[in-house]
Specification:
Blueprint (H helix, E strand, L loop, with lengths): L1 E5 L8 H12 L3 E3 L6 E10 L2 E10 L3 E5 L1 H6 L4 E9 L2 E5 L2 E5 L3 E6 L4 E5 L2 E11 L7 H4 L14 H12 L8 H18 L8 H19 L7 H7 L4 H7 L7 H17 L9 H7 L5 H12 L3 H10 L4
Helix pairs in contact: 4-6, 5-6, 6-9, 9-11
Length: 322
Amino acid sequence: MNTLYDTRTVHPLDQFDYYREEAIEVVPVVVRGCAPGCLHAVLSVAQIGDFEIGVLTWSADCEVVLQRTERLIRARDPECYRVFLNVSSDIRKEHAGNQVNCRARDFTIYDLSRPWRTYAGPGLMRTVMLTFPRAVVPIASDTIRPLMGTLIPRNLPGRSLISQYLIGLTETAELTGDPGLAEVLYECIVGLIRQALGQPNGISPRTRRLLHIERIRDIIRQHHDNPMLDPDRIAEVASISPRYLHQLFQGAELTPMQLLKRLRLEACHRSLQDPALAMTPIKDVIAAHGYVRCDQFARDFKQLFGVSATQVRRLASQRPSA
């Protein structure tokens, strides 16, 4: 993910001014309130097809009000919806005539062409934001309008699965241009909106399957360095049965264990080319990425890359430094 601003990069006395300048460049807002003595604000985003997913981490020792006004909207109207998933702490929001207090794992939907106000802090807050053009949603804006600024009911089927998936996605080190991710996000958001509106064709069995598959892939990406990771452990973390795990990946290009092996080998390949690890024994490099047996690693590595780990390291050492 790309970091758009991070107040930790500047002197504490300059953090509030830095935040106001950088935040306005991202989404123009008016920042009101006393300058916090300590402000930690980090925003990172990634583009996935039509969707921009971002995660905002915020911590301050006093309350700050962020306001998107009519004047700012006229100056720059993105014509987008934004789904907020509050990951931790409580936060007050006002939008479209509604006032809500968002708890952890609460969803709200905004129309960024309409004013809003958020009361941030004091304390630690983490929010996942998914922004997308209104045009991609096949539901009339007048139909969606009653949802604006309200809390999506917690008892909607599939809602918890979507929140887990979005949080896991923001914790992934590298978000690729995989078109499958955009498809899953589309199915999630349209299904969630339809369910909240009481419409048919909400979160379909196909969408649930896609969510489970992506959730499992996220688990494998996050825990690939655990040598004890196996199908039973993956299923346990994903809160599904090993049998269902097997059913989900029938016909898939890679099974969970094949994906796990691929991720471990690719991580080892990157580490072997890292000048900072040039003096680290190869056995320690591969152990750090979940491999237990050196002989098995050597066979798998040669099969995937066509060269040995020693050759990769030697070639990396021969490259001129920047």
